[in-house]
Amino acid sequence: MQREREQGVDVLVLAAHPDDAELAAGGLIAKCVRLGYRVGIVDFTHGELGTRGGPEVRARESAAADRVLGVAVRENLGLPDGHLEESVENRMLVIEAIRKHRPALVVAPHGDDLHPDHAVAGRLAAAAFYPAGFARLSTGSPPHRPRGLCHYMNHPPFDASFILDITDVWEVRLAAVRCYASQLHDPHSDEPQTNVSSPGFLARLEARYRHYGSWIGVEYGEPYWTAGPIPLGDPVACLAGGDRP
Ligand SMILES: [Zn+2]
Fold this sequence. Notes:
Blueprint: E1 11-15, H1 20-34, E2 39-45, H2 55-69, E3 73-79, H3 88-101, E4 105-109, H4 116-129, E5 148-152, E6 162-165, H5 170-178, H6 201-215, E7 221-225, H7 235-240
Parallel strand pairs: 1-2, 1-4, 2-3, 4-5
Antiparallel strand pairs: 5-7, 6-7
Helix pairs in contact: 1-5, 2-5, 3-4
The chain binds zinc ion.
Residues 16-17, 20, 115, 118 line the site of zinc ion.
């Protein structure tokens, strides 16, 4: 699968802000890399409205997290942080990003989120996914329709369509999150405090993934949502085989 797509990726993670992908889908990224898939990330904004650090710091932190996770390619659409719009123009940008990277699987935020940028990014991803395959819709790159789309969890919980066992990559996932040091707790920082920079943030993060892990009988699990049921080809392999945690 990997060799057939030398110019693209197997998995493309879409995110409103640098650090969203690591914070909410870092386990899936690390797991897919470990399984031999090429993984790319497209951030929609530079996170310039972030309370702490700045875009340059965030870019350095993202590059460090990419190295930790083994991300093959990362790009930024340069859209305005805090003002992400569900416009036709932005949908075309996302379609072109999908076509350029030619993923089999697209992973995006959920379209219903407390942060409007996350919600809009999730809805843009869902709106771009199908038309990316339209032969007569011109964006620069040839048409490409991915086979799968799933959404990761940010702020409000949802009923998970599936929970990924991320136990074997938990430490890598945590190391990638720690790359965003400007966002995390620093007792010597005089920058304003945020949820992420509060002393208990990493403990709450761990609690969330332990919680989802408990539902599938493993130490750590990452929840995902898909529109509609997940098709199974081999019920024994999927529900009772080696793929099962
Ligand atoms: Zn975000």
